[in-house]
Amino acid sequence: MLPNQMVKSLIGKVIRVEMKGEESDLVGRLEGVDDYMNLHLSNAMEYKNGEKVRNLGTIVLRGNNIIIIQPYEEHV
Amino acid sequence: MLPNQMVKSLIGKVIRVEMKGEESDLVGRLEGVDDYMNLHLSNAMEYKNGEKVRNLGTIVLRGNNIIIIQPYEEHV
Amino acid sequence: MLPNQMVKSLIGKVIRVEMKGEESDLVGRLEGVDDYMNLHLSNAMEYKNGEKVRNLGTIVLRGNNIIIIQPYEEHV
Amino acid sequence: MLPNQMVKSLIGKVIRVEMKGEESDLVGRLEGVDDYMNLHLSNAMEYKNGEKVRNLGTIVLRGNNIIIIQPYEEHV
Amino acid sequence: MLPNQMVKSLIGKVIRVEMKGEESDLVGRLEGVDDYMNLHLSNAMEYKNGEKVRNLGTIVLRGNNIIIIQPYEEHV
Amino acid sequence: MLPNQMVKSLIGKVIRVEMKGEESDLVGRLEGVDDYMNLHLSNAMEYKNGEKVRNLGTIVLRGNNIIIIQPYEEHV
After folding, report:
1. Hey, which of A44, A58, F27, F65 has its CA 20 to 30 A from B16?
2. Domains of chain F
3. Per the CB < 8 Å rule, is B40 touching D75?
């Protein structure tokens, strides 16, 4: 499956995202994604070393600064 | 909702932006956004650890160096 | 052979990927790749100094943050 | 106003630019800008913590490494 | 000569490549290059401070993370 | 003058280039430039704190990792 199809298949599900130059991960429900892999998440939370740091609510993440996208359930 | 639509829906509202390689956040009123997520903010302020550092006034932020865009009210 | 053809020839095989700003490598089975070199890996694992750190399962890696892609067998 | 229009409206004026991975700011007269936000400045000077470090004269700044563009008068 | 033509003229020859955020250089035979300067190298080796660190074999390097490309013979 | 026109006007002349994440500057004769600001330099030399570190000869610099381009004579 192509990477973009894989990400689109996660819409409506909770994903984990690692951003470039960030120490913490972002976990949230994927609401939308475009061809640049810009992401729209709801109920987003910041995690550091596996612990929840804070609630971010609705966020938009810029695609070109994403390192890894992962379905959240898989790595628990 | 697509990420770009989400950001466009915030025009006229106050947003918080994390930029790559910056320790401080930027908070300001979103005046305009284009397809690259370049942002035009007015009344922009720099925040560090939740405290206001300085007024920046009108600024333009380069889209590809944005990490997170967030409606400002949500995370207060 | 063009770089993209080289990467496409690795679909179905295990590859090693170095990402920008990451200390650890990612090793996994290449499921799909697009023209931006975004990668879809299955059974991905994180390696640090040659030792396995953790299982990541299914991941998507953003192409523009990739440094090196390599067939995994070659450098063992 | 769109970000690019905002920047184009500053042609002929003095602007301040923060570049990625640079500790100092650049201040100069905006001579030209293109759709990638590449900038052509004249009489450019390097500033560090509000103090002038050196004259750079004519410079070209690569758009994708820009963090912030700002009219210089605004934040004095 | 245009930069891309210059790089294409090096196909079949040994080149040295500096990547962003890497301390070591990569040296290998250029097998292919595309318009994004993605590179396909064979017999690639990692060098640090002029000393060979390890063999990498066949690798693909992502063009947008390249800093410098250089014919290898030139700087010996 | 547009940024790209400015750079093209420097073909045949010696320029100074600051690259992202590099401590040293590159100085060389501009042989060619394309629309991405990829640069082809001849007789390139590496400078650190104003002192020549080493000769690099012919090099190609990737445009998106350029911070500043400057005619060399101007800042001497």
Report:
1. F65
2. 3-75 (2.30.30.100)
3. no
